[in-house]
Amino acid sequence: MASIIVAYDKNTRGIGADNKLLWHIVEDMRFFRDTTIENPIVMGRKTWDSLPKKPLDWRQNIILSKTLEIDPTTVGACIARDVREAAEFISYFTVFHNKESFIIGGESIYKEFIGVVKKIYATEVDYRGGKQPDTFFPAINEDEWDSEIIYESDNDIIPYVRKVFTKKCQS
Predict the structure, then answer these.
(1) ∠ CA 78-3-143 to the nearest 5 degrees?
(2) CA quadruple 143, 137, 28, 43: dihedral positive or negative?
């Protein structure tokens, strides 16, 4: 099974600017780490490029890129050339290793997978920073999803709420 994990501005749905996150929220980074640890993560090349340390430890890193070449920074990562190949990696880890795969961004990767994931772990941030976002999380039709708040925080900088959306089943 594949899920999306994302933090976005609840007003603009912005997720980043200049290939960087708009914020650094310790609790959200901890939640990301604890949720994705020992599970495969799928990201685009720009997200891969933005990582300060590559690959992310204790996770199978899958990079979706048509152009990225294997080099010392990609050791320990899988490179998928298209969505079908990324889906094959996800299927392998789901079926043979009973793992939940996480789509971790960026914008175009979220757009590719949003129609097929069963779950979205979303941190909705009340962003009040100066940088204008240039990448965004796609809108979802909330009528097609159930949601529950699983964690709520109000730190000194930015209040946020984490929601888990799960697709509603047709009967």
Answers:
(1) 150
(2) positive
In sequence order, the 6+-apart residues with CB closer than 8 A to the CB of 63 are 43, 44, 45, 48, 74, 77, 78, 79, 80
**Structural domain total, the chain:** 1
CATH number for the domain spanning 12: value is 3.40.430.10
Number of Cβ atoms within 10 Å of the Cβ of 67: 7
Strand partners of residue 103: 4, 42
Query: Which run of H or of E encompasses 159?
Result: strand 159-167
Query: Measured in Å, how far apart are the chain's first and last C-alpha atoms?
Result: 21
Burial 20-57 (b: 16+ CB within 10 A, else e): ebbbebeebeebbeeebeebbbbbbbbbbebeeebbbe
pLDDT at 113: 95
Residue 11 above 70 pLDDT?
yes
**For the segment 115-130, what is each residue's pLDDT rounded down to a tens digit?**
899 899 999 888 888 8
Domain that holds residue 28: 2-167
Q: Residue 75 is which amino acid?
A: V
| pLDDT at 158 (0 to 100) | 43
